[in-house]
Structures are given as C-alpha cells and as structure tokens.
Amino acid sequence: SRAFIYAGTPSVLSSLWMVEDESTSFLMERFYAYLKKNDKAKSLRMAQLDALEQYEHPFYWAPFVLIGDSK
Fold first, then answer.
1. What's the mean pLDDT when you consider all of the chain?
2. Backbone angles phi, psi at 6, to 5 degrees
C-alpha cells in the first residue's frame, strides 16, 4: 500500500489476510453503494456492519482496512 500512496493514490482499501470471494464480493458491493453518498471511512464501516449481519465471524469482514485519505 505504501507504494500506491507514494505514487499519488489518495487511499487504498486492502485486506490483511486472504478472505473468501463471496464475503469479499458482498462487502465490496455494499462499500461502493454507500460510497455514492458517504466518505470512504464511513462507507467501509457501514459495509462491515452489513457483513457482520451476514457473516458473524470477524474472519469475513474484519481484515479490510482503509489506508490514506478517508474523504
């Protein structure tokens, strides 16, 4: 992620460990839907809360982190 930030990318959304495709797809769909009306940090939080309802174990939603500009 550091290389992307140094290259000029304002922010990076990444995972700290490998996550199943199904739960990642669910979270990302929610994230981008929320991003239409909210900033990145709030959108990620809201998407993770939705994923928590769908996938109770933190393994599926907790590894996603936003690095850089949250706006």
1. 96
2. -65, -30
pTM (two decimals): 0.92
Cα 62 to chain centroid distance, Å, stands at: 9
**Greatest CA span in the chain, whole angstroms?**
36
Q: How many residues does the chain have?
A: 71
Phi and psi, residue 16, nearest 5°: -85, -20
Eight-state DSSP code of residue 63: T
What's the pLDDT band for 41 if we cut at 50, 70, 90? very high
41 close to 70: Cβ distance less than 8 angstroms: yes
Residue 63 dihedral angles phi and psi, to the nearest 5°: -75, -5
